[in-house]
């Protein structure tokens, strides 16, 4: 069988989502942002929400997100994406509103907005890209930078006595009554990408159904900022980032224990 | 036992040569071009061993620039 026989439209199992427009992404080669943009485009397309989705872009590398995903976007001031999303969702309750923020935006200058929006239980989805560094401005230390991690403003590694502890802000949001779904995922392998897609889909569903604030943290790499190749950066993330930011659901009040339910189904053998 | 064969199409002008698809491929199908570059100067990915492809789409899932299309066909 020749390859021309296989390369037919009916045999396609994966292709570029239609909602990603033709612009070349400005992200560095291997950046996790591209994968998450792709997932958002796929999910919005699958849920049929293209005309109903409003994304709130942050300040940071993802500031140009409006250039790539063909939905409505608003560019918020630095850290203020959850506040802008609050207004948009309250004025347009039938729309799916999500914010897309990095750790410098969500966990540093926007800590107050994030915590209060989550505490009010705004019906929005928050996608949090945590790579432990300020990527856009040249790799400075961020609140989520790991202990001992070298950045351009901590060239000898982050010191706890000088800079404090890394901030696991997603864990703080678990304790708030306003959040309905808090999870931490990553996009370093195909399996992880599939799980992240399911998590973002769940978050978007919760936002549409008005169940409260959903937070999806994506532990990511910044290979340029970390001074590594993309493959090395993924390995480094698995080895170091996952210790401080372990992957998994932290809170899920919508589907309390999907894993237990699936297990229950398996334990009943087919007759 | 049906056999599954796959094929991938890579948009080489969009590829940034990040190597993530090469690392993700379980069948060692993909490699980066050692010398050739695209218009943007990146060593793009190509199918070095196209016969081995199983159409699992792992490469396309991890591709940050969404430049891979995956095909899969069952042969009885």
From TrEMBL, chain A:
Which molecular-function annotation in GO is an example for this chain? thiamine pyrophosphate binding
Which keywords belong to this entry?
A: Oxidoreductase
InterPro entries with a match to the protein in the record:
2-oxoacid:Fd_oxidoreductase, THDP-binding, TPP_enzyme_TPP-bd
* Location of the Thiamine pyrophosphate enzyme TPP-binding domain: 67-218
One Pfam family linked to the record: TPP_enzyme_C
In Gene Ontology terms, what is a biological process of this protein?
small molecule metabolic process
Q: Which Gene3D superfamilies match?
A: 3.40.50.970
Protein name in UniProt: Thiamine pyrophosphate-dependent enzyme
Taxonomic source organism: Candidatus Amulumruptor caecigallinarius
Automatic annotation (TrEMBL), chain B:
Q: GO terms for molecular function, please?
A: 4 iron, 4 sulfur cluster binding; metal ion binding
Record keywords: 4Fe-4S, Iron, Iron-sulfur, Metal-binding
Q: Does the keyword Secreted apply?
A: no
Which Gene3D superfamilies does this one have?
3.30.70.20, 3.30.70.3270
> What superkingdom does the record give?
Bacteria
InterPro entries from the entry? 4Fe4S_Fe-S-bd (IPR017896), 4Fe4S_Fe_S_CS (IPR017900), Fe-S_Ferredoxin (IPR050572)
Q: What Pfam families does the database record attribute to this sequence?
A: Fer4_7
State if Nuclease is listed as a keyword: no
Q: Please give the name of this protein.
A: 4Fe-4S binding protein
Q: What is the lineage of its organism?
A: Bacteria, Pseudomonadati, Bacteroidota, Bacteroidia, Bacteroidales
